């Protein structure tokens, strides 16, 4: 008898590590849903506003797709860097907030901001290099870095300072192998917006450390508090900046997968250091953004009316107000900073006000079981025993979810507390 040959596949360990993704955790939590519960399942765990019907895109957007399709001009493969019309439209759109003019050559069209992240991590990954990432953050960065063998070092965002970056610690973290730092502004998961002064300090620190800044501005202009949105590109003459963005969140079409990478770099550092060549080389071997979708970008950017954005921000502001007031009534949760941008906020668990729950994951498992509400355990975004709440829901659904969380919290109060209530 011949010995059967063993299969050689051993699995990619890093892909298992990257199973710590928002989607992975959501699927795990969903398995705990009590199917007997007649109430609707309330999902406050994703950064997808279209989960609720009050958030609907402008008719300008489907019209643009329809006319692109009906023209029969965009059935071809696109250029790997993106359609010139689309690149020009994004360059013009972003330049209106910058002290210099972007050229279409600064723009690369990607399959959502997710692919933009993936490309930049791959471009930066060389053996021994490291990237500085925010904690809490957006797990896509960590997952991709792990798959590419790029070392991650975390700098903290400080809740007591409105989630500003711990800039002093940043300096201690970096070494001669640090290639870049990434920021997310406005912030997912914290819901804060960095000030002009803070961003300027970030730029100066990065310059001192000799590292590029990648800025994830998927929530650009989606602010409703006292800090206006300032693009990091404003400081590109201090330090070269890679801006990542997409239409998904602001235009309420995350499923359309339209994003971009933009080099904001009036001094031509990215050209000189080979970053630009690397991005192009990567795009030559990856999947293109569908041509028809790209062809719709110019019309969508030019024709969307301000009222569309204003209307959405009104609802989101209302959500933030409801959230902040109602969250204070929930004994076991502490919200250190009222959200001033979309779509998520971080709250800390107060263990002195809750019993029989061991950590954030346990909290989320029991919450979905007992109340059919889904929150994201903070550990998924880097902060154990915190929770990330997507507060931009239909206002009535948000009220409902917060009442259920309150009922859950009261039910799990330590006994000595309940008797005195
Ligand atoms: C949603 C999100 C993305 C992904 O954007 P897509 O355009 O949907 O790929 C990237 N970064 C942050 C911070 C996000 O919240």
From TrEMBL:
Chain positions with N6-(pyridoxal phosphate)lysine modification: 249
Gene Ontology MF terms: L-tyrosine-2-oxoglutarate transaminase activity; pyridoxal phosphate binding
Alphabetized PROSITE patterns for the sequence: AA_TRANSFER_CLASS_1
Family membership noted in the UniProt record: Belongs to the class-I pyridoxal-phosphate-dependent aminotransferase family.
Source organism per UniProt: Acacia crassicarpa
GO biological process per UniProt: L-tyrosine catabolic process
InterPro entries to which the protein is assigned, alphabetical: Aminotransferase_I/II_large (IPR004839), NHTrfase_class1_PyrdxlP-BS (IPR004838), PyrdxlP-dep_Trfase (IPR015424), PyrdxlP-dep_Trfase_major (IPR015421), PyrdxlP-dep_Trfase_small (IPR015422), TyrNic_aminoTrfase (IPR005958)
CDD domains: AAT_like (cd00609)
The protein's name in its UniProt record: Aminotransferase class I/classII large domain-containing protein
Domain Aminotransferase class I/classII large: 41-405
Requisite cofactors: pyridoxal 5'-phosphate
Record keywords: Pyridoxal phosphate
């Amino acid at each position: 008898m011949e010995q059967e040959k063993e299969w050689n596949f051993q699995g990619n360990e890093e892909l298992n590590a990257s199973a710590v993704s928002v989607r992975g955790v959501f699927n795990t939590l969903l398995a705990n849903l009590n199917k007997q519960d007649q109430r609707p399942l309330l999902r406050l765990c994703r950064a997808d506003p279209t989960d609720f019907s009050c958030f609907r895109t402008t008719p300008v957007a489907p019209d643009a797709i329809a006319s692109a399709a009906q023209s029969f001009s965009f059935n071809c493969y696109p250029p790997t860097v993106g359609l010139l019309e689309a690149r020009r439209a994004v360059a013009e759109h972003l330049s209106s907030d910058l002290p210099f003019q972007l050229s279409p050559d600064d723009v690369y069209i990607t399959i959502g901001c997710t692919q933009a992240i993936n490309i930049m991590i791959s471009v930066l990954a060389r053996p021994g290099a490291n990237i500085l990432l925010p904690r809490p953050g957006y797990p896509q960065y960590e997952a991709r870095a792990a798959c590419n063998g790029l070392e991650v070092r975390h700098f903290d965002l400080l809740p007591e300072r409105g989630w500003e970056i711990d800039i002093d610690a940043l300096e201690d973290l970096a070494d001669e192998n640090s290639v870049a730092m990434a920021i997310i502004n406005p912030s997912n998961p914290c819901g804060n917006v960095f000030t002009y002064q803070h961003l300027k300090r970030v730029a100066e620190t990065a310059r001192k450390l000799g590292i590029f800044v990648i800025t994830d501005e998927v929530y650009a202009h989606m602010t409703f508090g006292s800090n206006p949105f300032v693009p990091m590109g404003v400081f590109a003459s201090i330090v070269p900046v890679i801006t990542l963005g997409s239409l998904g969140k602001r235009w309420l079409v995350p499923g359309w997968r339209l994003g971009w990478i933009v080099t904001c770099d009036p001094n031509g550092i990215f050209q000189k250091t080979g970053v630009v060549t690397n991005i192009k080389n990567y795009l030559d071997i990856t999947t293109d953004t569908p041509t028809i979708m790209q062809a719709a970008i110019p019309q969508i950017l030019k024709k969307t009316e301000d009222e569309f954005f204003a209307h959405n921000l009104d609802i989101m502001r209302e959500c933030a107000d409801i959230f902040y007031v109602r969250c204070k009534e929930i004994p076991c949760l502490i919200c250190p900073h009222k959200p001033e941008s979309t779509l998520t906020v971080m709250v800390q668990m107060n263990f002195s006000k809750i019993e029989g729950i061991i950590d954030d994951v346990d909290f989320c498992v029991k919450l979905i079981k007992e109340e059919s509400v889904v929150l994201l355990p903070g550990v998924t975004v880097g902060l154990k025993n915190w929770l990330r709440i997507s507060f931009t829901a239909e206002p009535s659904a948000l009220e409902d979810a917060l009442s259920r969380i309150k009922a859950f919290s009261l039910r799990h109060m330590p006994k000595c507390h309940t008797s005195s209530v």
